[in-house]
Amino acid sequence: MKILMLAPQPFLEERGAPFAVYHHIKALISMGFEIDLVTYHLGKPVNLPGLRIIRIPSLPGIKSVKVGPSLAKIPLDLLLCIVALWCLCSKRYSYIHTHEEAGVLGMILGSLFGLKHLYYMHSDLSQQIVSSEFTTNPLLIQLVKFVQKLMVRHADAVIAICPDIETSARQMSPSTPIYMIENSAVDENLPVPHPREVAQLRYELNLGSGPVLLYTGTLESYQGIDMLLHSIPTVLSTQPDAQYLLVGGQPEQVEKFTRMAQELGISHAVTFTGQRPLAEMPLYMAVADILLSPRSKGTNTPLKLYTYLRAGKPILATAIFSQTQVLSLETAMLVPPTAEGIAQGTLKLLQHPQWAATLGVHAQHFAESHYSWPVFLEKSTQVQREFAAEALTRETTEERAKDLSCVA
């Protein structure tokens, strides 16, 4: 079976949604599917047998696409629609599989070409434009809510990435089949770094011999980086050798928070690396003593949490719903989403290392049983058994009819 997949994002890029798309493609390929992926002109090459990447033409002046909604996405998504239409006119597909706002295209193109449409719902788009501070215009927010509801109602099935998204999707359309497939760790198949490599990274980043507190991910406003930085002076007053390592973010975001660290007088204890390749993630995880997720708002689960859990290190996270869907008091230190809450939670972990280590062990065991690649693959296989059954039957019937006509 050949699938046309539409992913309106840079592919591949080291951030949540592209990683989720990558994992889903790997699962589909392992089941024997072939995939034509229509995506943006941006992103690193990906070599997977069974995957053909079809990039839209580049547009002058668009050299990056920020996380979440942006004006740049409007012309890019129009091009995505044109290229997808060309693909459908030139080749036969079993069904259309879309991600994020491309669900609109799946709804329209699926109807035009008589194909089933599977919508992968990474987030509630109306919540995304609010949490990303793209707009506060109530009319625009209501319009996005309306469009999101249409996408769910007109999809033949929806895959939700976390319990809150599943609940939202069911409320939008009780009659649409909704499946929940939570993500797995992004570095599960990467080799464990040698202790010598870990020591070398600590030396290169001038992290000293004290505890290292690691954050990985984007530096968008909803990630709570400002709260994290404001918590550091309190921690340093008790634990002056602590070092904070923040991996990820666009250059302008790194510059902004670097200035904030300077204003707070904590520059000596904070290191920003910017975006780093996925292959380096196990190394950064290995150098860390505590993993941080200071998220301030949103309801969809941060992808980083699955990698954090698997790492077996103590996790400190803000106790907001997007994180407590996955984390509990048995697997993480959960604190109020304030600078003071983060500071006090950090000190508690640093001052009680045995208890902190136990949290890490519990987290790792929980990840193995709930969010590992075998679990992800099993859930994905079950969805495809149910969703693709009709398409498989139709293709088999048509092939038999064709064979009979040839014989005749």
UniProtKB/TrEMBL annotation:
Keyword Hydrolase tagged: yes
Matches recorded under SUPFAM superfamilies: UDP-Glycosyltransferase/glycogen phosphorylase
GO molecular function: hydrolase activity
Origin: domain of life: Bacteria
InterPro entries: Glyco_trans_4-like_N
Keywords for this protein: Hydrolase
Domain (Glycosyltransferase subfamily 4-like N-terminal): residue spans on this chain: 20-173
One Pfam family hit: Glyco_trans_4_4
Protein name (record): Glycoside hydrolase
Source species taxonomy: Bacteria, Bacillati, Chloroflexota, Ktedonobacteria, Ktedonobacterales
